[in-house]
Amino acid sequence: MQRIRLCSPPVLTTTERINAWLRNSANPESDAEAALSQPRPSKRRRHSDLCPCPMEQSRPQSPSKRPRVECDELITPTQSASVVGSVTSLTEKTTLSMRSNASRSSSPQRQITQLRTAHPPIFLHPLAAAGECVPAAVALRIRSLQTRLRHRLEREYIPGYLRDALERDPTYKASLLFDPIEDAAYYDEEDEEDEEQEADAALVLDRVKAVFQGTYLCKEHTMDENAWCLHVVTPLLQLAIILYSRGRFRQESVQSQSIQPAYLSTTAPTRSKPTPVFRKTDFCLSYSHLHPLYASLYKTLRHAPISHTTDIYTEAAALFTGIEVKSPSGTLQEAQLQMGIWMAASLRKKAELAWSAFATDALSRRPDHGAFIEPGITIVGTEHKVYYAYLSEPDSADLSQGASTSTCAISILGNDTSLPYLDTSSVQGIFRVARLYGNLMVYAADEDAETGYWGAFLGPVLESLARRVGGM
């Protein structure tokens, strides 16, 4: 007889018994729990979606909110969620930057390149790479001008009568402690002109202090280009004029002035006509209306247009050089572009006056390209760089036969690395840069009938024009 084995029910723990009872018992609220177990709607869902209301449907969408773009495409890890399907992929090497309104076509370097094919062209070449493309007469004049500009830039560039005042002034104490002024930097000249300048020692020291303190403030507070022009460059030019101009020159701020379109280069037409390439510059020098040598000439000219600007005053003034200023955050290429356009227009206007004077037999000989060399300056922060602009083509013989100066190509060489480092961060640097501008003014005022810029070129040209105006 087979024995039947009886198994006792499994022993359940208290928790298991409770769970089993809950599963088997009837739940009157099961429907409610089922409803609660359904996915909750998004919090962003508006009540109007559940209960349509005519007022809600008729209200226009807020214009301040950008509508969400619906897209069924999948967003891959290498795509931007804001622009699905964009051809630009995001990778490890992608650089994200702030949105900029400036296009690549407006970059200074691209525009400098475009000037080479403009009509007429403007060429900007490094001075060391110019080589054989510079005419012999121009190369000779540039070397002579380089020698002029280097004069007393490394030695004897600070008047000796300022020595005690500079060394006693507490403003420069920290600067001179680790960068003292060498004895060779001072010079003493015993003549009447130096005695007259010594009487203006207080004014000279005031301008030096203005440049020194202005440089510190502009650096410390990251000021913009306008502040550098006002607090640094303006007193610097005033210092150079006090020390070296002998009343012949005035500083002119031309930031707000336009250039006459006839002297601008134009790019290829994009629609119906060529586009002039125009940029403004900051400063230039003018031959002073108050100096006796030039005052009588201006009076005879009767406000005849002798410069390339549209301003009533500067249009009737003889202008020299062009100075473009940038803050330390500015770019050298942009400064070169602006200075180059200004210098090109200035030389084209001077060429027009010269060919006109020669055509009327007022000049005994035709001016050559070497007569049109004029230096230009770029300033980025505290650094000053020098360039040489000249008329590169066509030949003056072609212009004398009636060709228009609008066809004059201009070449600009620089910067001149043969000059000492020119910087206004120190006391001696301020005097060295002021001496550079003094050398520029000496070159511009040179009355030598063979080699002087005024005596051999600009002076005779303006005198010829004055005779024609006076004879009308």
Explain this structure to me?
By secondary structure, the protein is α/β, with parallel strands linked by helices. The chain has a domain at 115-152 and 167-179 and 192-268 and 281-470. 41% of the residues lie in helices and 11% in strands. It has helices at 14-24, 30-37, 47-50, 54-58, 108-115, 136-150, 163-168, 173-178, 192-198, 201-220, 225-245, 292-301, 312-315, 332-359, 396-400, 427-445, 453-470; strands at 122-125, 158-159, 186-187, 249-253, 266-267, 275-276, 283-287, 319-326, 374-380, 383-393, 409-414.
Mean pLDDT: 82
Low-pLDDT segments, ≥5 res? 44-60, 62-90, 95-102, 396-402
Helices, by number, come to 17
Amino- and carboxy-terminal Cα gap = 156 Å
Global shape: extended
- Strand residue percentage: 5-15%
Rg on CA atoms, Å: 38 Å
Got a strand count? Answer: 11
What percent of the residues sit in helical stretches (DSSP H or I)? 40-55%
Instruction: Give the helices and strands as they follow along the chain.
Output: HHHHHEHEHHEHHHEEEEHHEHEEHEHH
Order of strands across the main sheet: 1-11-10-9-8-7-4
Features:
11 strands; 472 residues; single chain; 41% helix; two-stranded parallel ribbon; seven-stranded mixed β-sheet; alpha/beta
Summarize it.
With 472 residues, the chain is an alpha/beta fold. The protein has a domain of 318 residues. It is built from 17 helices and eleven strands.
Helices and strands in order:
Elements: H1 14-24, H2 30-37, H3 47-50, H4 54-58, H5 108-115, E1 122-125, H6 136-150, E2 158-159, H7 163-168, H8 173-178, E3 186-187, H9 192-198, H10 201-220, H11 225-245, E4 249-253, E5 266-267, E6 275-276, E7 283-287, H12 292-301, H13 312-315, E8 319-326, H14 332-359, E9 374-380, E10 383-393, H15 396-400, E11 409-414, H16 427-445, H17 453-470
Parallel strand pairs: 1-11, 2-3, 8-9
Antiparallel strand pairs: 4-7, 5-6, 7-8, 9-10, 10-11
Helix pairs in contact: 5-14, 6-16, 10-11, 11-16, 12-17, 14-17
